[in-house]
Write a structure and sequence with these properties.
The protein has about 240 residues and is α+β, with helices and mostly antiparallel strands. It folds into two domains: about 140 residues, no CATH class; about 90 residues, Chitinase A, domain 3, CATH 3.10.50.40. The protein contains ten helices and four strands; from the N terminus they run ααααααβααβαββα. It has a four-stranded antiparallel sheet, sandwiched between helices. A hairpin with a 2-residue loop joins strand 3 and strand 4. The longest helix is centred in the last third of the chain and has 33 residues.
Amino acid sequence: MEALNILNNESFLLLKNNDLLIPLIKKIILNEALNKIVITSQELSELKDIFMKQNQLKGDDELKIWMKKNNIEEDNLINLIKKPIQITKFCEKEFKHRTHSHFLQRKSDLDKAVYSLIRVKDPFLAMEIYHRISEKEASFEDLVKEFSEGLEKDTRGVIGPVAINQSHPLVSKILRSGKPGEIFSPVFIDPWWILIRVESKIEPALDERMEEAMSNELLELWLTEESQQIAKNLEKEFSASK
């Protein structure tokens, strides 16, 4: 990569030791890839119109004022405007054929759930609440309002939708195994005793939005792999030259 030819051992170590080397290489790799993606004049004109509407700019005179105020040159502005569609086109060209398999690998991490929660610090009270709900002596919602000590009290106990894998491991286990409407006996997650009722589960679908998300993930994985390999090669090169 010619852009990195200006580096010497000192500048390399400076970037590496300040965690700036990999981000820099990633940016260079991405920019070189995007430079090969052609944007038509019509597409650029449409993107410019969208940009001006988003920034409430009326006409080229206001655009020039905005550019001066933000200290940005025309070439940089064009690159800024067209970059998102270039990324989309690059991802479609390079990664679209892999989105389905990547989605299947990631699917369990993308599952979401809605659940109801009661939190108390007294284990005996937690068991009493559990039995009252199980025996249908009171509703979950009423007992949330009466006893819960967490912020869920303000939402009648309802949490979510949330990504299951981002929950506490015990909560995640309950959400994965539970069926809608099922209530679980209290579990201890310091400092709380919690009761959970699964309300619903949301399985992700590979729609257009998800395809875009998977493509962007594949892009980031590719950038990471490429940049790490280049960084290793640079380190070997500078080590050998000592």
